[in-house]
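Support case: user asked for a sample of complex input and structure output to validate their parser. Sending the pair below.
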Amino acid sequence: MTTVENGVNVQALLDARAALKDAPEAAQFTWRATSKWEKGVHSTIRVQQFHGLGAEQTHKSESVFDADHPAVFAAEDNGITPIEFLLVGLASCLTAGVASVAQNRGIQLRSVESTVEGNHDIRGILGDSDVRNGYNDIKVTFHIDADATKQEIEALVAQSQKRSAVFDALTNPTDVTVTVA
Amino acid sequence: MTTVENGVNVQALLDARAALKDAPEAAQFTWRATSKWEKGVHSTIRVQQFHGLGAEQTHKSESVFDADHPAVFAAEDNGITPIEFLLVGLASCLTAGVASVAQNRGIQLRSVESTVEGNHDIRGILGDSDVRNGYNDIKVTFHIDADATKQEIEALVAQSQKRSAVFDALTNPTDVTVTVA
């Protein structure tokens, strides 16, 4: 068997799956972000700490993001629009899944690119109650070059979708509670 | 009446709402992201172009994001985890809404901070079919300092939630189609 190297430590993930089966409390993660309003619809958001494996964890560095609205919304465009961050998460989650599944199946990847498009009728957020606020639908298109048949590549993408955290979060409802301290 | 300045051009948004009522096709936006696999579960995602008001539009600059998994997932932690981007979008969307609604209601904001926490049982993404892949639930806590009563501040947050694109996208299902070109 040819050695495949996509850079994913599949054995560690299989070991984690086995370990967490007997320690479900360690599998409870809490991801966190903190935001600070700057001015107008511009805010900065920071991500570094999270909880998992029964302890506080930290990313090796803090990530800071700017979110704003574009000039066509009469804003200053200091960063991408909040709803665009969902597309960033979806693209990266599905791509990580493709790499992991390919590694597990012994398929060498050469390149994986995707385009994500979210269709959005902005009359909802502007106050029209007959139009939903979020996306009407989202389309993801992958371009993948790998040592595999078209059918094998399609199966990689299908399996990635089946185990994608972000795909699930967007296609199924999640309870979100908002409170004022 | 005191002049309130939160930096949101509410009149432009009200004008847009009126204009788009008679031109629904101009209200159809398509937001886009493109991703490129780097190595392992690391990818880079770019956002700049979008479609809206019947034409191609562009952010004033391109935004580039790194997504990866942390060291506890046996990865290199070159960026935040895909599912964390959903929290970035949620925090910034609700914050933009608070600022817009406050401006419209004549409430001066001094500071708006929030913490967003997403609870996630990672056994799902590791392959346990009895556990969902996405978040179990998400909690958002706002700390707001404004020239307003506690009740008025709570009403700001409630109205923001009611018109938030990302809140809707996370609490209600969206059709996501994934294809291989």
